[in-house]
């Protein structure tokens, strides 16, 4: 099958699909033939789904909710499966990115970070895997971070959640491989998303966004910040048939940061 139609007749659900990597992945899979449902806490998620449908001609649904709340996730996945007859692909990209070490991070921030970044992935798997099994299997792609393998300072809650995603993904691969379900993670580095823009506003020392991105890009072996569309290609590879023998693995797409010893 040509890559342009590698998702023909596939049904995808994208948690955190309202912006950033999740939105780029949803657009790409739709352009390659998938029916795509996006779920986000952003009020414009329904409009984003409508635009995806117009741009690609694909079927698209949008849901607004809290990815850490079982009722919201169940409502969206059950509605998607009812509308389209099942589910083949789950992409999990919802995340928040607080700053602080274990001393300065309060309990509420710690809990919320683990809920949004990790629990949302459990909820989509818990709710969606049954539908995937009914269709003979499928693929789960969890967006982690290179901060889950090696971390910067003052990212206690965020880095912990991302490291846990790597382990959770391996459990999915081990537990459901015999049922035809593959599970892999993607670990981005600095990508030009709303999350990185917020970081630039906080730590850019008054520079413009472009100036900050250029400065930060110099720390990356490839000498630039990545784009959501580049990560979407990795997600699509793992969600589609080209990665049919890949499961339980983490695919790093960070411009070479993890390869850099720093001296």
* Overall pLDDT metric: 96
Order of helices and strands: EHEHEHEHEHEHHHE
Shape: globular
The profile of the biggest β sheet is:
7 strands, parallel
Count of the separate structural domains: 2
What fold name goes in the CATH topology slot of the largest domain? Answer: Rossmann fold
Describe the structure.
The structure is a single chain. This protein is an alpha/beta fold. It is built from 8 helices and 7 strands, in the order βαβαβαβαβαβαααβ. It has 2 domains: 3-190 and 229-256, Rossmann fold, CATH 3.40.50; 192-225, no CATH class. It has helices at residues 20-31, 45-56, 70-84, 107-134, 156-176, 194-203, 209-217, 228-239, and strands at 11-15, 35-40, 60-64, 89-92, 138-143, 181-188, 250-253. A 7-stranded parallel beta sheet has the order 3-2-1-4-5-6-7, sandwiched between helices. α4 links the parallel β4 and β5 (138-143). The longest helix has 28 residues, at 107-134. The radius of gyration is 18 Å and the shape is globular.
